[in-house]
Amino acid sequence: MDISTQTTDAPPPTPEPDVARLKSNSRGATRPGDRIFLGLSRGSGILLLVVMAAIAVFLTYRASLAISKDHGNFLTTFEWNTNLTPPSFGIAVLAFGTIVSSIIAMALAVPVAVAIALFLTHYAPRKLSGPIAYVIDLLAAVPSIVYGLWGALILVPHMQGLYGWLNDYLGWTGIFSWDGGAPRAMLTVGILLAIMILPIITNVSREVFRQVPRMHEEAALALGATRWEVVRMAVLPFGRSGVISASMLGLGRALGETMAVATVLSPSYDIQASLLDPGGGTFAQNIASKFGEATEQGRDALIASGLVLFVITLLVNGAARAIIARRKEYSGANA
Amino acid sequence: MAKRIDVSGLTAYYGSHKAIEDISMTVEPRSVTAFIGPSGCGKSTFLRTLNRMHEVTPGGRVEGKVLLDDEDLYGTGVDPVSVRREVGMVFQRPNPFPTMSIFENVAAGLRLNGSYKKSELSDIVEKSLKGANLWNEVKDRLNKPGSGLSGGQQQRLCIARAIAVEPKVLLMDEPCSALDPISTLAIEDLIGELKERFTIVIVTHNMQQAARVSDRTAFFNLSAVGQPGRLIEIDDTERIFSNPSVQATEDYISGRFG
């Protein structure tokens, strides 16, 4: 109605069409585009929850079948004999191997990835940072079986020197002692995993560091900060939560990596005190090696181990979220 | 303490583009000098040459001399980092570090310059916050994030951060343009107090502000878009606003510009 009164010079149009148009505008939420988008996004969200719930139900059900028949203690037994009657199997070795190899991978990959990301965003000339970023993207696209083959054929033989050196200087600690066997041990697995998770952590960190507002860097510069001090004062704190998220993506891959570990590790059902002695195993590697020839009962047992991996992953992600949330009011997003 | 700035024949470039040309002026210690002029005339660029922030921009390059008392900021072997510790800067948009508390924001520059005892640090932080007229508003929440303050408080926090390291000169690049009138008044009062300790140079688009806070005013202009900005005249503020010696200044001030 207002619209028609404003245009007094023009011949007065019939009021009905105007009113009708305003009415249809006021019900914006019911436009087909909005309705379709709302449905799609809500549907995707619900689908994700349904899939997660279905996985959890499937794992829990099949796991409970196996665990109820397990003769040993599922959490502490050091063997995996699913064909005995009654069967005896436990995930102690697998949990240890999975966690240790992932810790090694994270300890090696996160500092290097953050350093590469900082170099690309704050030090490298633009001509250089483009190609380097491209190569890192390529690393992420290499299939894990290729990493596994490279690890078994190239990395393992070349680890002899490092193993010997570690044994000479750090052997007294126990965790770096080596008896001269093939280096198909946790340290090699950890190094291979570190190379595999490097690209994802680097890429996400690089994105985060690139988003640091120019004005924060200038604030630090104007206080008389050197380039490294700018990074320490403005860039790293701003990117902290993003780097944690990036590391979680990498950790998720390290915890669940299957083929590369199975190709490199020489597995056994005991825990090696030294990272350089072959043996041990991981959840994913154990499932991959055993699934093909497992009986129905054996498969249920493997699924039970998968459930434990699922729970570990949830716990780690929860912990990471808690760390980020604890300093939420200091987040760079408040800028 | 406060130092004199003596600029002679200063020209600044962005890559091959000449942004300002042949600027010479003297800024007396313990005074406020305001830079006014239309957008794009190079006043901010010139301000940023005074603490060597201009060269941080890719392609940024400077010719000419800037003497701080008798020391040439662009002399061979002069470290831009140490220049910026002598010449502090406050920016257009308040930019406290979002990841730091109020206390840590003020202490940030001190931590760069060396190690202080905890009590020394608290004393300097308190003194700086008092100097920025912010102490009473934040003394009970020094450990809260600086990003929780209002825009005007954030800008005073940035001033406290800049003066905590006891610079000789304080540069302000349109420090009130993102603030409401009451916060602006608070900053202007503060400038009046700070000039007893520091040499202050302020860029402003607000001519009343220049008239209110400054002792000397410099008018910058450019002959056409794409041409380098030049200093048209610098004189006592009273004279610039009542009886400037160049017609262009009078046209700009009286709004007959362009």
Automatic annotation (TrEMBL), chain A:
It comes from the Bacteria. Its main location: membrane. The chain crosses the membrane at residues 45-67, 87-120, 132-156, 185-205, 301-324. Residues 1-28 are annotated as: Disordered. The keyword Transmembrane helix applies. Residues 95-320 form the ABC transmembrane type-1 domain. Belongs to the binding-protein-dependent transport system permease family. CysTW subfamily. This is Phosphate transport system permease protein. The lineage of its organism: Bacteria, Bacillati, Actinomycetota, Actinomycetes, Kitasatosporales.
TrEMBL record, chain B:
Gene3D superfamilies: P-loop containing nucleotide triphosphate hydrolases (3.40.50.300). GO terms for molecular function: ATP binding; ATP hydrolysis activity; phosphate transmembrane transporter activity. Residues 5-247 form the ABC transporter domain. InterPro entries: AAA+_ATPase (IPR003593), ABC_transporter-like_ATP-bd (IPR003439), ABC_transporter-like_CS (IPR017871), P-loop_NTPase (IPR027417), PstB-like (IPR005670). The keyword Nucleotide-binding applies. Keywords: ATP-binding, Nucleotide-binding, Translocase, Transport. PANTHER family: ABC TRANSPORTER I FAMILY MEMBER 17. This is Phosphate ABC transporter ATP-binding protein. It comes from Streptomyces cellostaticus. The keyword Iron does not apply. GO terms for biological process: phosphate ion transmembrane transport. GO terms for cellular component: membrane.
